[in-house]
Design brief:
The chain is α+β, with helices and mostly antiparallel strands and 289 residues long. It folds into two domains: 104 residues, Nucleoside Triphosphate Pyrophosphohydrolase (Alpha-Beta Complex); 130 residues, Nucleoside Triphosphate Pyrophosphohydrolase (Alpha-Beta Complex), CATH 3.90.79.10. Helices cover 24% and strands 27% of the residues. The protein contains seven helices and 14 strands. The strands form three sheets. Strands 9, 10, 11, 12, 13 and 14 form a six-stranded mixed sheet that branches. A hairpin with a 4-residue loop joins strand 6 and strand 7. Helix 2 packs antiparallel against helix 3. It is globular, with a radius of gyration of 21 Å. Bound molecules: zinc ion. Zinc ion (ZN) binds next to loops.
Length: 289
């Protein structure tokens, strides 16, 4: 099971992209493609497919600032991304659906594009002095021409953990989720803590149980808008759970109960390959903790 967004074919060309002439050459390359967004979702072409066009053709299209951003090279062929002005093209389905249905390499390209474009959409001005930022490194950073501050795309690390004790695990649900849906606990890391400390703190905050030990399993870029999910399994002290306010419920599950939960309509909402939560659950079901 290859986790979505984790097997990117893109070479970010970090040693070359600071050269504006090199970026211009990539944009002029006949093989260069650009994926275009309408808001947070992909734009659709006339046939209803994701709008992927030759990068050179985007000169004629009304793009939001800063225009095209460079994503990387796939087997030497450049990829770019741009956000269309509102109303120019039809929006595709919710980005989660698009990413679930895309072939794995393309889902990675779409995910990196979404994270970068969402960041650019919120960083037009320098957070230090308010001047308008200038694009640098093909969009891999912004530089303030007034005070010189460099701004780098934001990534928010988040711990996500399958908590277990004995033969049971803990899953929780938020009120906004589909009826009956339960998943692993998760939360953003805070400054000054290790991954293990964040896992212990979040587990204590969310269900009021202490973590005995935590083991790193895998990570997943999560472009909503730009989180890095750090997946762990955590053995916790058994006992009563007290769900935090942001959880509607949290409870202990046996393996049979978890299998029943995911052998249902919910499986389509969260297919096995799509989320690290599901990967952690599947590993636990298989006895791999
Ligand atoms: Zn500034």
């Amino acid at each position: 099971m290859q986790l979505t967004f984790t097997d990117s074919p893109l070479d970010h060309a970090g040693l070359k992209r600071s050269d504006p002439d090199w970026i211009a050459d990539q944009m002029a390359d006949p093989a260069a493609k650009a994926v275009l967004f309408a808001g947070g979702d992909l734009a659709l072409d006339e046939r209803g497919d994701p709008m992927i066009v030759p990068a050179r053709r985007t000169r004629l299209l009304p793009l939001k600032p800063p225009g095209l951003v460079f994503l990387g090279l796939q087997n030497g062929a450049p990829w770019f991304a741009g956000a269309l002005q509102r109303g120019v093209a039809e929006k595709g389905p919710d980005f989660r659906i698009t990413a679930m249905q895309a072939e794995p390499a393309l889902a990675c390209v779409f995910g990196r594009a979404r994270s970068l474009l969402q960041w650019h959409g919120r960083r037009k001005h320098c957070s230090n002095c308010g001047a308008e930022n200038a694009l640098a490194d093909g969009g891999a950073k912004l530089v303030c021409p007034s005070c010189g501050t460099e701004h780098f795309p934001r990534v928010d690390p988040s711990v996500i953990m399958l908590c277990w004790s004995g033969e049971k695990c803990v899953l929780g649900r938020q009120a906004s989720w589909p009826q009956g849906m339960y998943a692993t606990l998760a939360g953003f890391m805070e400054p000054g803590e290790t991954i293990e400390q964040a896992c212990a703190r979040e587990t204590m905050e969310e269900i009021h149980r202490p973590v005995l030990s935590a083991t790193y399993v895998a990570s997943q870029p999560w472009p909503f808008p730009s989180t890095l999910m750090i997946g762990l399994t955590a053995e916790i002290e058994p006992g009563d759970l007290i769900p935090d306010d942001d959880l509607e419920d949290a409870r202990w599950f046996t393996r049979d109960e978890v299998r029943a939960l995911y052998d249902s309509e919910l499986a389509r909402w969260a297919p096995k390959h799509f989320s690290i939560s599901r990967l952690l659950i599947e590993r636990w079901l298989a006895g791999e903790v």
